[in-house]
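Supplementary Data S3. Sequence and structure tokens for construct A.
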Amino acid sequence: MYLYIYDSCLKDKKYENLLTKIEARIIDLDMKGEVLRMNLLKNISQFLKDGIKKGAHTVIVIGDDKTFSTVLESAMLENIVMGYIPIDKKSKFAQIFGIPYGDLACAIIGGRIVEKIDIGKINNKFFLGSVLIENSHNTELKIDEFKVRVGRGNKIIIKNIDFEEENFSISNPTDGLFEIFIEKTGGFMSKNSKHTLIKTNEVMVTSKDSSIPLVFDDVQTINTPAQISTAKEKLNIIVGSNRKF
């Protein structure tokens, strides 16, 4: 039995044809299940708990990367397999998982190739991609017994997965490690950029003067202090043959 979580934006008329194709393909592949349409009043975790009691084995997110990241928290806590049907042709998560856009993703779900990949944990929340500290004034990173102080004007990126294809060999979601990049000047990929690369499975982030925000997966924000680590849990994700790992 499948559980489907629809992004709230799918109510928009511009997605009507796409959603019709997706739902028709789900029926063709005999992958019917219960549906939750996201809004502020719906409890994703309770929906999964109730579905698992009825025998559900997989939750399928129909939406974009932000939708996937939002559902990730509850899915990890319930230890259920995740699948993804992206409605954004530029989805970075879909690229990593080897999943095509729209109704074409249904065949990947039906093929059910499940991989276990690393998930990050920031305090008590999970993330898939990265944590960004845009303003790192007086920020300190504690890695094992070492401390790294980062001054004003620098950017810190702590990556579980690097979505830049040319850098993917550096950042792999199955090696149990984060990659920490500290930008010195300019943009991350600019000619004048200088960055430090540190590999670790745990880092404590603190700030001396005041609490600073850390944005993870471009969706949620947590303020320092923050303990960031590779989670003991693994994400069970349905992938395609064109996955990047």
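Construct B, processed identically:
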Amino acid sequence: MLLYRSIIEYAEAEYVIEKSRFISHASPAETTDEARLFVSEIKEKYKDATHNVPAFIIGPGMEHQWASDDGEPQGSSGMPVLKLISAEELTNVVVVVTRYFGGIKLGTGGLARAYTHAAKLAIEKAGICEVREGISLKYRFDYSYLNKLQSIAPDSGFTLEDIQYTDVIEASVSCMSEEAERIKSLMADISGGKATLLSEEVKLAKYPI
């Protein structure tokens, strides 16, 4: 089940226009506290910069939204970055665009375009994904079934994770929640009913798009 769209990982990108250097940083964040901590870390790392413009959207319903111009003309930087994140329908994302002023003024419109472009570069580099509800099915089975499961996994809608090699195999079979019953049937068919389901756990998984 699709829950929301977000980004896969942290990324940064750089953009130079009219001698001003823009370094954009994009990161996943699950809470507003996590997002604010990221903003603080970037500001500390680039404390010699002219501006560190932050924006974030947090929550599955995009309910927590915040941005700051950090000394740039009002509405010229933070809000355009926030609008970009919103337009991409992304949440649980925090972006900070660091600017080193190059001596040439860009004007309000120019600033908005520059900050938006820099933020977009970092978001694209971070990778947009769908966050879906998944199921982790922990199984115990004989070694004789491992190669078969590994070979069919890519085309069968599941992944094998946390494989433990003892006298038997214990591994997590992860899939999307709507596929759980089909995967259970598949495991039963492949093992002749000998694979033992030990536990089920709901988890979130990111799928690149």
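The first strand starts at residue 2 and ends at 7. The mean pLDDT is 96.
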